[in-house]
Write a structure and sequence with these properties.
- This protein is mainly alpha-helical.
- Helices cover about 65% and strands about 5% of the residues.
- The protein folds into 2 domains: about 70 residues, Orthogonal Bundle (Multidrug-efflux Transporter Regulator, Chain: A, Domain 2); about 60 residues, no CATH class.
- It contains 7 helices and 2 strands; from the N terminus they run H-H-E-E-H-H-H-H-H.
- A hairpin with a 5-residue loop joins strand 1 and strand 2.
- Helix 5 crosses helix 6.
- It is elongated, with a radius of gyration of 23 Å.
- One of its GO terms (molecular function) is DNA-binding transcription factor activity.
């Protein structure tokens, strides 16, 4: 069993963060000694690592707390939990599409017949132009902006 200071130090967090996560319900209440001192099992590293990963995926602390309550109780997912997960799936789908597009642009730039010793601004201009051309062809008004005009290109 670890003290709050030991857990915080080993997890690379502050004791204040550990207490805050407990307050939000991200961490389950720890065992306490007769004197009220918090004692943490090694399982808390799992909770903290899960929290770190969920934060990296874009979940906010309130969402993480909701998901944590669901995970800790083993209860059936509430409509709120399902909504959080469905929204995150949509956000991740969008990020994946953006990253695939970026990958394709960078791959095309890397294999283009352009001068390999060309300065970086020329490469950026080339990527921007290819990106803008593709975006203009595929985007609807909501992608370009409220006035239906394409966003300006870099030059």
């Amino acid at each position: 069993m670890l003290s709050i200071g030991e857990l915080a130090r080993q997890a690379g967090l502050s004791t204040r963060t550990i207490r805050y996560y407990e307050e939000l319900g991200i961490l389950p209440p720890p065992e306490r000694t007769a004197g009220g001192t918090r004692r943490y099992s090694r399982d808390y590293f799992f909770y903290l690592e899960g929290t770190r990963i969920l934060k990296q995926l874009g979940f906010d602390l309130e969402e993480i707390a909701e998901l944590g309550r669901f995970a800790l109780t083993g209860a059936t997912a509430s409509s709120r939990t399902k909504a959080i997960l469905q929204e995150k799936v949509a956000q991740l789908d969008h990020r994946i599409r953006v990253l695939k597009r970026l990958y394709a642009l960078v791959s095309a730039a890397a294999s283009s017949r352009a001068d390999p010793d060309a300065p970086v601004p020329q490469l950026l201009r080339w990527i921007s132009e290819k990106s803008s051309d593709e975006a203009a062809a595929a985007a609807g008004p909501e992608e370009n902006g409220p006035d239906d005009h394409p966003r300006p290109r870099w030059s």
